[in-house]
Specification:
It is a single chain. The protein is about 25% helix and about 30% strand. It is of the alpha+beta class. The protein has 3 domains: about 190 residues, Jelly Rolls; about 100 residues, no CATH class; about 90 residues, Jelly Rolls. β13 and β14 form a beta hairpin. The protein is elongated and about 75 Å long. The relative contact order is 0.18. The model has no long low-confidence stretch (mean pLDDT about 95).
Length: about 400
């Protein structure tokens, strides 16, 4: 490539077929893209961006080229000087459509310093040295575990779990349940969780604990949502220590348009649902349960945040034409637009890149190049890269349309 044409670009994206993805008639991603799923193939994630593990492609002069290669060759045109300097010439965010049929791993993400250290110590299991703050926005719904429950909730759970007391030991459990140790309760709760995770390799004792809980819950008439999830995930994972996290983490249910933000150190596991997910341009994950992938309990415990609070949920107004999802991430800001047919909007790039992802309807993008007016049409399931060098553009809703817009704040 000798030059980079200043225009919008349709993105050709990669699909990840992780085992927890939806299949066959339930496969959300093929339906979203307007294609037919292959039989019994799990469709887990659609990657939209310039991560080298699964870079999107754009078409220039009839040739499809990986987006990260285009960014490397034309950083000023694609990123703009501000983003190029701030993020060392790399595209700052990664957008995904994620579709989970059953639980992902219990995991957390390191901050930048921790990510660099893990990469240096173990590049095989941590090939990425970037942090991964991320937002998950429900396209239809999402069930997930996110963050540690309030201490009172954990205490109430442990009172009903004699099997866990037997597994961890009265030396830690009894003081935590006692009214005389309220000033130490956060420290005790942390010690209890760390002890539980450290003993995950004691397979026989762990199996006795989990089997005991399963048998008792099977016979219980009325079960809590956490207990129901414990039994449901047991069918998939057996005596996995991650099952015990249902009694420590917040179990949440997101409705369409609702969102959660998970910063570094926040433990979480998506259980079921279809979401739009945006994160820093990273694939950095520390896992410790509900997975057959590499687990690293010491690393997870080293970076966990013990906030002991209900998980904050970002709401959206069903009839709002624009919803902004604010987070502390410097790499991205996600907005959800809902426009009726015929509506239009002028947008400025501010010399920063952005990506659009259409979830419903169709729109037309209009822009000028060398004094010539241009237009291109896009439909639901398609995504568009708007480079920093495109100063302004106009979005015209050809039907009632919904789309996500990701910008660099």
């Amino acid at each position: 490539m000798k030059s980079f044409p200043c225009q919008p670009y349709k993105l050709y994206n990669s699909i990840k077929n992780y085992e927890w993805g939806t299949k066959n008639g339930q496969a959300f991603i093929p339906k979203f893209l307007g294609t037919q799923p292959e039989p019994n193939v799990p469709y887990a994630e659609l990657w939209i961006g310039a991560h080298p593990n699964a870079s999107s492609e754009i078409e220039i002069a009839g040739e499809r080229i990986p987006m990260h290669r285009v960014v490397e060759q034309f950083p000023d045109e694609t990123l703009g000087s501000y983003v190029r300097e701030k993020f060392n010439g790399t595209f700052p965010f990664l957008l995904k459509v994620l579709s989970a049929e059953h639980a992902l791993s219990i995991q957390t993400h390191p901050n930048k310093t921790q990510a660099q250290r893990l990469h240096q110590q173990d590049p095989q299991n941590y090939p990425d040295d970037n942090h991964k703050p991320e937002i998950a926005i429900a396209i239809d719904s999402l069930d997930a575990l996110v963050g540690f429950q309030p201490l009172a909730s954990i205490r109430n759970n442990l009172k009903t779990l004699p099997e866990l007391t037997e597994f961890i030991g009265n030396k830690l459990i009894d003081p935590f349940l006692s009214d005389q140790h309220r000033t130490d309760e956060a420290m005790l709760a942390q010690k209890i969780y760390e002890t539980m995770m450290h003993r995950a390799d004691e397979k026989e004792r762990l199996s006795i604990c989990i089997e005991g809980i399963r048998q008792r819950l099977d016979q219980k008439g009325q079960r809590s949502p956490e207990e129901e999830q414990f039994l449901e995930q047991y069918k998939l994972f057996g005596a996995d220590v991650g099952l015990l996290s249902f009694f420590f983490f917040n179990l949440i249910h997101l409705k369409t348009g609702e969102a959660i933000f998970t910063d570094a150190g926040i433990p979480h596991a998506y259980i079921k649902g279809n979401i739009c997910e945006c994160m820093a341009n990273s694939d950095n994950v520390v896992r410790a349960g509900l997975t057959n992938k590499f687990k690293d309990v010491p690393a997870l415990l080293d970076i966990l945040r013990y906030d002991f609070a209900e998980c904050p949920v970002m709401k959206s107004q069903p009839d709002a034409s624009e919803t902004i999802y604010p987070t502390s991430a410097q790499e991205f800001e996600v907005r959800l637009y809902k426009k009726t047919s015929g509506c239009f909007e002028e947008q400025l790039s501010n010399q920063r890149p952005s990506v659009l992802l259409l979830t419903k309807g169709s729109l037309k993008l209009q822009w000028s190049s060398d004094g010539t007016s241009n237009a291109s049409k896009y439909s639901a399931g398609e995504s568009i890269f708007l480079p920093a060098s495109l100063p302004k553009f106009r979005i015209l809703a050809q039907t009632d349309v919904e789309y996500f817009s990701v910008v660099v704040p």
